[in-house]
Amino acid sequence: MAFALLDKLVKQKKLRFDEWRDLLSQVDSPSFEEAKKRAQALAREHFGLGIYLRGIVEFTNICRNECHYCGLQKSRRELVRYRLSQEEILSSCAAGHALGLRSFVLQGGEDPGLGDAWLTELITKLREHFPDSAITLSLGERSRESYAALFAAGARRYLLRHETASHALYRKLHSPAQSFYERLNCLYELKALGYQTGAGMLIGPPGQTLEHLAQDCAFIQAFQPEMLGTGPFIPHKATVYAKAEPGSVRLTLYVLSLCRLLLPELLLPATTALRTQKASGYTEGILHGCNVIMPNLTPPSAKKHYQLYDGKAGQKTLEQTLEDLQKQVTSIGYHLVFDRGDHPRFAKNCEKSP
Ligand code: SAH
Does 329 reside within a domain? Predict the structure, then answer.
């Protein structure tokens, strides 16, 4: 049984913790290529050769948190902070919409100035301007009431990476004020409210072992997210991890392929962090089972202040970026898909609900 654990994963969509750990430890064995081959075939079976696009607007870099790896952490007093106006956010989305995008992600730091009234007004305007488009939020931890209000206004997807499913590692990577259980609780609240929910972990932050990653896989298996954002940790020069080793591209690709095998219908982006670490990151991600790319719609004047990590990719204009993405995906036989790209379980409802 050369690939016994991969066989079991494909068949049962479920592994024990020790099996995850053993499978992850095979990253330098033939399992790597085999997982890639199977993940690619599975993604094609479910999504064909189409790659979904999400235009991301990083509309605030104000943050109350101290994630030790992140360049937006509150204690960075020298960082110029910004929050885009509703008009600026709408015009960023309009630029993407004009070029065919139908899915927008509004991301930001955990900005205490983002009240529900302001956000619901923004979401209502986005729904009015772009009724054919999906709105995803990625604003960190909020109350159940707030998530419910944003859902009622028309947001239908929420990205909240769990960052790590190890309590011990979570503690090391974040300030004492941040609660591992609270973050997980937010994910369960989002799911219960009916959001298409995105979890995800960093690959290779300081102190992470394969055991920790096995905990991430076991968590994903239990939580069954619709989306998964996962990419290599990349050091940021102004953080305590400035001199740390970045996460491994190979391990990231391997984990992506295993996540595809675990959840065949998963919306799985080839992340900007992967692309930052390797020029061919998008195409390699796709060949390992990814089916989403997230071009950046943030206005350049703001984008330069949204450096989560050093060397973040994406300094071109939107037209250039889309043209370049089109070239990259066609070079491997795929094409870009310009629609909302709902999770298959949610797709049939999208005409009725926003
Ligand atoms: N405030 C939101 C958005 C966070 S930024 C939230 O809490 O969800 C989006 C993601 O960037 C984070 O979830 C984290 O996984 C990733 N990120 C932050 N710093 C990073 C780094 N140094 N290297 C790689 N990814 C990083």
Answer: yes
